[in-house]
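[Q] Does anyone have a clean structure-token version of this?
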Amino acid sequence: DLWKFVINLTLALGYDAVVGGAVAMTGVATGFAAAMINPFSLGIAQSIAHVKLYSGIGFRVVTFIVFETIAILYVMHYAKKVKKDPTKSHVYGITIPGSGQKDKEVLMNTKFTKVHLFSCIILLATIGTIIVTTMFFGWYLDNLAGLFLLSLIVEGFVSGYSFGGTIDKFIEASQEILFGIMTIGFVRAAVILMEDSNILDTITNFFATALSNTSSYVAAIGMLVVQHLINFFISGAPAQAVATMPIMTPLSDLINLNRQIAVQSYVFGSGFAGMLWPTQVVVDCAIMGIPIARWYKFIIPLVAIMFVAEIIFMCIAVAINYA
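[A] Here you go.
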């Protein structure tokens, strides 16, 4: 629903659905991969590598600024081009049934009411609660699911619906993302199959062995590449950390690399690769209502730029013995 809101907002401003999807997806992916403090990736990896929690933040502040700047400039360049000439849009002339996208006239003629105001307040309160509870009270998926359910009920009450009417609206909205939910299930089933058959362990061990007799710079870049490749099979950041860091940590010791560099390769690989691999992109596109081939036309150049920047930062990390 947040993605649909952003997409419809960009449509109302004269852009296209790709701009809205990019604002949401690249914002999340870049913030996740270049985060200064991220308990779901960095925190887990540093714990496994026995590195002081959230240490090395100075280096990550720089990476965060650089990667966010790249993402913002890239999206703004595309948005400016589309606004000037709508035919340059990657989704020009395409209407996606069930995507939730609305015509610009409909969006512009919709008045902002008190109900909309209260809805925004509830949304901001929900987001604020997520931030506070995950950072200080250890809330995770089960707790957040309950929070979303409570937010749904409150939102329905504010909008004037009965409890039954709220549930009906929830079911109606869920129909639009059913395809995305089914896709998530199929992708997860493939990952479970590879996990239970120990295919992932074999793949990870193969890559680690190949890096054991290389120079520091080559090994650091190699770790980065490996983490990107592993992300194809393991899309969840915590799961990827558990699968790779127990191998990458002793490997970094073996080739005299600071463990922080191994952690950084994982953080980059588990985040930025999510914008590329179809195991994740197909789900995102299903939710956004954008054909995956059209999305790739937009995102592949950005991913390439990001990857070059990742390599540069990994080399800098080795040069300064990032710790």
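[Q] Thanks! Anything notable?
[A] The first helix runs from residue 2 to 12.
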